[in-house]
Structures are given as structure tokens and as C-alpha cells.
Amino acid sequence: MTDSVQFACTGCGKCCTGHHVPLTLDEARQWAASAGQVVVLIEAFVVDGPGMPVEQREHVLRRSHPVACGDTEARVSVTFAAFNPGRCRNLDDNDLCTIYDQRPLVCRIYPVEINPHIPLRPENKDCPPEAWQQGPELIHGTQVADPRLAALVQASRQADRDDIAAKVAVCQALGMTTSALKGNGFTAYLPEMGAFAAALAQVPADNGARWTLHVQDDELTANLQGHGLQTTCEAPVYYAFIGF
Ligand code: SF4
Ligand code: SF4
């Protein structure tokens, strides 16, 4: 457990390179409107069953949504993220953010963790060593020390809860209905942005789509099918399976 962490951003820009930045629904609309690409990341679990991290029960339930899968129900968590395989499109040649005043919530929160079950570990972050040797206290005990930053973290968690039903409806409208099992991997889609923006502009109604879980492990497949879940191990065409 972390007792106290001090921090001051050095402006190195590393967190703006090679990171897919999770977006709220409104931020995803803005990203699409400015011709940015969104990547959709999906993972699923069964309540008190496969894929559910028991110690994070409340957290994962609140940011997930029930969907039909096989002859039972799974819950899916959906992340809409700015697709940044290299430098973020908003990072200029001087490593400055060109949309600084309108940057996404997650950009304002980094390097603090949003998941309350993940402690901040400087060694897992992109920030250089000197960033952790200067500045005000960032973490005190297990709490974010700055109340304004703590409020941003809460706002991000709340957006995850508020947005999940709409995100699932958008996925279903665009046929993005294959998920990985939480803890085993996730599926990643790069939607055509015209269709994605249109769906976001007017969030579609839940069309009752049936979902499938992508797994590549025979034992896990048998386990999931034993729970009544629909699975596939076919080579993906319209998405990528990112296994752990
Ligand atoms: S939007 Fe700005 S702060 Fe966020 S990753 Fe891009 S350049 Fe960095
Ligand atoms: S990696 Fe850390 S130090 Fe560098 S710009 Fe991002 S938050 Fe600041």
C-alpha cells in the first residue's frame, strides 16, 4: 500500500504517446466530430461466475450492462477510447497538448488510477523518476490528496456508470457483439467513424442483440458453454482478440 506519493508533471509527453485514452460518451462524440478514430474495447463476465473478479464485485457491476449470451445473461464493460497507437493527434511538436483546455477527463487524471482497486505504482507509469521527486502530495494513504483531482476521478467513475447502457446500445447497433472474457483478454474494434458518429449522435435503442464470447482455450470454452454461454474461437475478421 502506498503511504504518500508526491508528484509534479515534467511535461515529457510520454503519457500522450501509445496510450488509447478512455473517453466519456460526450468526449467520444467530440473526438469523432474532430475526425479522430475511436477504438472500442469490450470485456464480459457472468455475475458471480466466469470472469468476475470477486474482490471488485461492486465496481465491475456498476460499470457493466446485462446482455443476452447463449441461453443466459452476461454483463459487458465497454470502453470507447481515443485510438493513439503512436503520438496523440493533439500532441504538437513541442510535446504540448493543442486541446489542453478541452482535453479528456482521463488526460486530466493521469497518472492517478481510476479503478479504486488498483493502487498507484509509479513504476507502472510513464512519468520519469524526477516527476516523483518533486511537487505536492498526490496520494495520501489510499486517497487522492488534491480534492479537485479526487473530484475528477469520481466524475470519471460516474461517467462509466452513466454511459454504459448507451455504449452497449451503440455497439449492438454497429454489430460489435463479440466480447472477450474479463481476465482472459478483450476484443478491440475500430469502427467506421461515420457510422459510429451517427450512432453516437442519436444513441439507438437496445435492439436486444445476442452476444458471443471469444475464447481460444478449450477448457475455458467448455466451462463457459457449461454455463450456457455462446462462445467462438474462429479467427476474428472485424475485430481483434487481445488475449492476456
Ligand atoms: S488529448 Fe492532449 S493530453 Fe490527452 S493524450 Fe492527447 S495530447 Fe495528451
Ligand atoms: S508521462 Fe507523466 S510527467 Fe510525462 S507528461 Fe505525462 S503526466 Fe507529465
Automatic annotation (TrEMBL):
Q: Which domain of life is it from?
A: Bacteria
The protein's matches in InterPro entries, at most eight in alphabetical order, are given as: Puta_zinc/iron-chelating_dom
Q: Which PANTHER family match?
A: PUTATIVE-RELATED, YKGJ FAMILY CYSTEINE CLUSTER PROTEIN
Query: What name does the UniProt record give this protein?
Result: YkgJ family cysteine cluster protein
**Organism of this sequence:** Pseudomonas kermanshahensis
